[in-house]
Amino acid sequence: MHTLCARGTMKPEINAAVGFLSRFLRVKGHVNDRQVQTFSQSLQDILAEQYKHHWFPDRPCKGSGYRCIRINHKMDPLVWQAGQRIGLTIQQLYLLLPSELTLWVDPFEVSYRIGEDGSICVLYESQPGPGGMPATATTSSPSGNSGAVNPMVDSHISCKEELMVLGRTSPSKGYNMMTVSS
C-alpha cells in the first residue's frame, strides 16, 4: 500500500488514540495547555511514522500487535518519546496515565482496556468505504458520551450503557465491569 494513502486513512484512528491519552494529561493536571498540545502533535507524528508500513485497511487485524500501545510495568516507548518532548519524566508519565492501559489502534477501530481484567471499550469505529477510507465513523469518550462524526450514523453506546440496555444488574461471567472515576 502506498505510504501517503496509508497515512491518510489512519488519521481519524490516530486522532482518537492521541485525544484519549491527552485527556489524562489535561485532567490529572500539572501539564499546561501548550504542553498538552505539543504532546498531542508529537504523538500524532510519532504514531503516523511508526504505523505507515503497518496499516492494512483491507486486513485490519494484520499488524494489530505492532500498533498496540501498552502501559504497565513498562512505559510504551512511543508515549515516552512524546512525553520527553514536553519535559515529562517517566515517573511523571506513570502518575498521569493509567498504570495498566492497553490501547489498540486499528483501521476503522480504536479500543482500550484499563486494567488487566478490565472491559474492552471502543473509542472510535467506522465502516470502510471505497479505497479503504472510512465512510462513516462514531467516536465515544471514556465517560460514555458518544458523538457521530457523520450525522448519518447512530450513536455508539458505551460498554456500561450496553450492559444497562441488556437489563443486567451485573455482568455475566464472561465480562468484567470497569468503572473510571476521577
UniProtKB/TrEMBL annotation:
Anti-proliferative protein domain: residues covered: 51-71, 97-116
Gene3D superfamilies per record: Anti-proliferative protein, N-terminal domain
SUPFAM superfamilies attached to this UniProt entry: BTG domain-like (SSF160696)
GO CC annotations, alphabetized: cytoplasm; nucleus
GO biological process, one term: negative regulation of cell population proliferation
Membrane-spanning parts: none
Domain of life: Eukaryota
InterPro entries attached to this UniProt entry: Anti_prolifrtn (IPR002087), BTG (IPR033332), BTG-like_sf (IPR036054)
Family: Belongs to the BTG family.
Function in brief: Anti-proliferative protein.
Protein name as it appears in the record: Protein BTG1
Protein's organism: Pundamilia nyererei
Gene name linked to the record: btg1
